[in-house]
Amino acid sequence: MPYALRARRAVRETVSGLPREFWWLWTSTLVNRLGAFVATFMALYLTLDRGYSATYAGLVAALHGLGGVVSSLGGGVMTDRLGRRPTLLIAQSSTAASVALLGFVRDPVAIAGVAFLVGMASNASRPAVQAMMADIVRPEDRIRAFSLNYWAINLGFAVSSMAAGFIAEVSYRAGFLIEAGMTMLCAVLVFLRLPESKPTATVAEAAAPRDDSVSLRTVLRDGPFMSVVGLSFLVALIFQQGAVGLPVAMGEAGFTPAEYGMAIAVNGVLIVVLQIPVTRFIQHRDPRRLLVVSSVLAGYGFALTAFAGSFGVIALTVCVWTLAEIVNAPTQTSLVVRLSPVHGRGRYQGMYTMSWSVAALVAPLLSGFVIDRFGAEWLWGLCALVGTVAGVGYAVLMRRVSEEGEKKETDKDQDQEETRTADGVLGVADGVSGESRSSGTL
């Protein structure tokens, strides 16, 4: 009983203190992932139900991913210009319409084109979700909020994957229509329950020249942030191997598809079970250490697959890199928010999202080439190397970010002291105190 009470208290402390808007956004995420169907069974639909080749199915998957790359930046720009709420409504409504259409088209060129549109529409909402979450959640609660959102994504995906298997046995078209309906329900939730969270510009910012606004060029010139994007791409390449390199390597080693399914299910189950307790453990710890450790752990977790001669050992390696995933995802997302200017969060989140979309395109090509030319052992060794490089990169980057942050805080304190001194002098001359001038400005 004491253990049950402690567990209940831990859960209550993890979910308490977050604003109501966050929970509506969280619910929208959960509903969206509960209805996921296309991403899970698209290849089976094309090869088994429609009778197309595996090469064509791979092309359609690549076009779906390419759509995500394009919309990552487009969705980020929309998030900043139109607002978070309008972007979510447009993206989710477009996703619902395109997914429903995908269930009815039959021509191979039309299927490929609509799959590209689905990839664009579905990924356009991600920068808006992350920017809105950063807007409505206090800085000290963001790692916890991003962890809970990641937990909802994986819980919904785990449930939808199992349900999609039964739905596919009845009708693939029903699966497309169910996903379209669930996505439209998300749009309804956003419309009814989520207010716009885009920060309003101050008088000084509104009067600033247009050239000072945040643009994609501004993002590209932000060295520390683009370093995070590059390191994120490396980490994403590693995690993508769970869906790309691992099934191919297991197949060549004589394992059955069912054994791969059970192995990858370990990933989803662990995230659902451990995300909340691990979040409590990491939320007040040094993000530099968390990013370094999680990057190295991911790389060497996959590297251990080279020594896995049984299903039990493979499941153990999945546990290792899943723990790295649980730690890395919310910590890295929180770092992106930290480095993003308030009025440019959409573009910054879009660029960050694009790093994962590009990794999803590159990983299949990279893993296939390495396995065919050199063997799976070289792929797992490459994962260890990439994880080490990413870990070292995060160590250097976070030291630089911390030093710049301390310098900015020092300069800010000096500016505030100079302002108070100037206000005091002017206040004596004008008969107006510095405090009342500040109040008047506000």
TrEMBL record:
Principal cellular location given in the protein's record: membrane
Annotated region (Disordered), positions in chain: 403-442
Chain intervals with Basic and acidic residues compositional bias: 403-421
Stretches that traverse the bilayer: 21-48, 54-75, 87-105, 111-129, 150-168, 174-192, 225-248, 260-278, 351-371, 377-397
Pfam families (UniProt xref): MFS_1
GO MF annotation terms: transmembrane transporter activity
Domain of life of the native organism: Bacteria
InterPro entries named in the record: MFS, MFS_dom, MFS_trans_sf, MFS_Transporters
Domain spans labelled Major facilitator superfamily (MFS) profile: 21-402
Keywords: Cell membrane, Membrane, Transmembrane, Transmembrane helix, Transport
GO cellular component terms listed in the entry, alphabetical order: plasma membrane
Gene3D superfamilies: MFS general substrate transporter like domains (1.20.1250.20)
Location within or outside the cell: Cell membrane
Membrane-topology descriptor: Multi-pass membrane protein
Protein's UniProt name: MFS family permease
Species for this entry: Streptomyces luteogriseus
Lineage: Bacteria, Bacillati, Actinomycetota, Actinomycetes, Kitasatosporales
